[in-house]
Amino acid sequence: MTFSSIIRSNSTAAILNQGVRTAVLGLWFLALARFFPPAQFGVYVTIFALAKIIGTVAGLGLDRIIVKHLAEDLAATRPVLAQAWKIKGATSLFSYGFMLAATAWMFPANATNLTLAALIGAPLLGQPLDILDFYFQAKGRIWLSFWGRGVPLLVVFGIKIICLLQNCSLTFIAGLEVVELAMVALGMGFAYLTIPALLGSRQVSVPTSSSLLSEGLPLLAGSIAVVIYMKADILMLGKMVGPYQTGLFSAAAQLSELWAFIPMAIATVLFPKIIEWGKRDPALLRKNYELALQASFLMALIVAVVLTLLARPLVITLYGPSYENAAAILQIHAWSGLFVFFGIAQSGFDIFQRLTWLATWRMAFAALLNILLNYFWIPFYGGKGAAWATLIAYACSAFLFNFIHPSTRSVFWMQIRSILFLNVLDLKKALLGSKQ
Predict the structure, then answer these.
(1) How far apart, in whole angstroms, are the C-alpha atoms of residue 277 and residue 283?
(2) 59 by DSSP, 3-state: which?
(3) Residue 338 CA to chain centroid, in angstroms?
(4) Is the N end or the C end of the chain the one with fewer CB atoms within 10 Å?
(5) Could you tell me which residues come within 8 angstroms of residue 293 by beta carbon, excluding any fewer than 6 positions away?
(6) 21: helix, strand or coil
(7) What is the DSSP code string of 88-127?
């Protein structure tokens, strides 16, 4: 299959699947910011950031590893899923308990915030449902993920908006996370029942739980680094300058990060094919990977330019006058999308090339850099300082650090070719090729 046919074959389902999750979260934060002042919104996003960090740790870096094993060996389907289900079940309970303990430590003697944490953190208990999602991805049944997870998210999102319009309390609204978890569980279970019985038996040679955890360790470390330099700024803003600046920064970042579903959808579709191309023809892998990088850069550039030019009217229209100061933050943060798109496009390539530990070190250093820059800049520049720290950290992790190591230097030069638009004509031919 050509690059364009692969993108088109599952693109609609993948974009809907990733797009609904990302867009619903982005629009939900936008709606919360619209109905609640920056300080209250800042408390909500601080607790959400804590849940995101804990959830990432609880994932143990297994997401892509499980998809990889399922895509490589059809006969290993049942035992691989059984091992993954056992691991995810244990981590879901532990992570939820840790979430409550961490919130109690961060907000001592604050029963309201602890209640918010108990409700906002409810999705941590649904981590075993991700196993079915991985199975659908590996078998090219992405539509099932959309019907099982995307549709319930849309339904509950509509209920949340109605509650906002009825001036419900923040605690009541947070309780809808529990309703969402129940509906997603029902949706994914029903989607699973619509497919034929799983293939494979327990007699095939499959990785053990310990070997899965070992494979996922570098990805886990990398994921922790990523979520730290994506969420540490929110936690540090809340601690160092208060929830008002946290609310402004989060409002701006939400508009900037809203578009990440596009490369995530493409990466979901391409990852199983990266494995196939790499085994069959390294030249084909390089060619198609360069096209993916070029497409990612073009999309990110368009988003960054539009957000920079329209930052002020967008912020005032979407959030209201009380968030006007978030516009300057958005004009900086929007350009980090160039490197976010590059990083997402590179993740599958790193896994196939067995460069996960190298990717981990890149992201760990970037996370440390982000924390240090935040520490020095937040007291003086507030949200704008955090935005500059985010931009520099992303640029180092997903672009500049590729030049340092010989194993990723070729990726760096492919990225340079994308920035200089040297692949744009090849991309046009690839996308139009199936129409001719």
Answers:
(1) 9
(2) coil
(3) 15
(4) C
(5) 342, 345, 346, 414, 415, 417, 418, 423
(6) helix
(7) HHHHHHHHHHHHHHHHHHHSTT-HHHHHHHHHHTGGGGGG
